[in-house]
Amino acid sequence: METIGPQLIHLVQLSLQKNNAKKVLSFLALFFSVLAVYFALYASMFASSEKSAVNAIRERKVSQTRNIMPPASLYTSTTSSFESVPFYRTIIDNNLFRPLGWRPPRPKEPYRLIGTILPKNADVSPNAILQTTAGNKTYIVSTGDKLDTDTTVTDIQPKQVTLEKAGQQRPLTLNPGPWLK
After folding, report:
1. In a domain, 91, yes or no
2. Deepest of 15, 21, 38, 85, by most Cβ within 10 A of its Cβ?
3. Is position 79 within any domain?
4. Structure pTM?
5. Rounded distance, CA 27 to CA 63, Å?
6. How far apart are the first and last CA of the chain?
7. Which domain holds residue 15?
8. Distances (CA, A) of 177 to 25, 82, 180
9. Contact, 140 vs 129, CB < 8 A?
10. For residue 20, is it within any domain?
């Protein structure tokens, strides 16, 4: 390439002196077409060697990550215990992408059973711990206590309380969540 440059300049100077413009233009066209073919071949050689180098790097990275990754059996054994809906209840209840000021819909049941206290002694009455779903007030009640003007506790059993409102009895059961089974 270094020897072509000075020869080309010398030929252009000679042809301009002799007014052979057609010969100069045809020579330049031939020269640039040969130059284009040369660069195309050079670029294709460089591109193919670059692709092979990139593929070699990718294969090296893949082989390294295969050595780092734990076996797939570890994933299947641990995720099966988390597939229940109560485990994800916290995420569902506290969703970050809800609009500002969003309030959850008011539940149909105004009370939630937190726990029951059943004594071993028959002289002591059983107690239940109830919580309001709207205001998060906690009550410790026994059989016959009134929660509000219409609701009365009629029965306390292990993990269940029966409430009576307007003559209708409805049971409240203890929801243990995913951590207590």
Report:
1. no
2. 15
3. no
4. 0.42
5. 54
6. 82
7. 4-68
8. 88, 12, 6
9. yes
10. yes
Tokens for 162?
């029966």
Number of domains in the chain: 2
Most confident of 76-90, 94-108, 152-166: 152-166
pLDDT digits (tens, 9 = 90+) for 34-55: 778 777 777 666 555 555 665 6
Predicted confidence (pLDDT) at residue 59 exceeds the cutoff of 80: no
Query: Residue 76 domain-assigned?
Result: no
- Mean pLDDT across 5-11: 69
Per-residue model confidence as pLDDT tens digits over 62-84 = 555 555 555 555 555 455 555 66
Q: Which of 46, 68, 90 is the last residue of a domain?
A: 68
CA angle 167, 174, 107 (to 5 degrees): 60
Q: Which tokens hold the place of 40?
A: 């195309």
Does 116 share its domain with 64? Answer: no
Q: Name the more confident of 164 and 25.
A: 164
Q: Report whether pLDDT(61) > 80.
A: no
Residue 6 three-state SS: helix
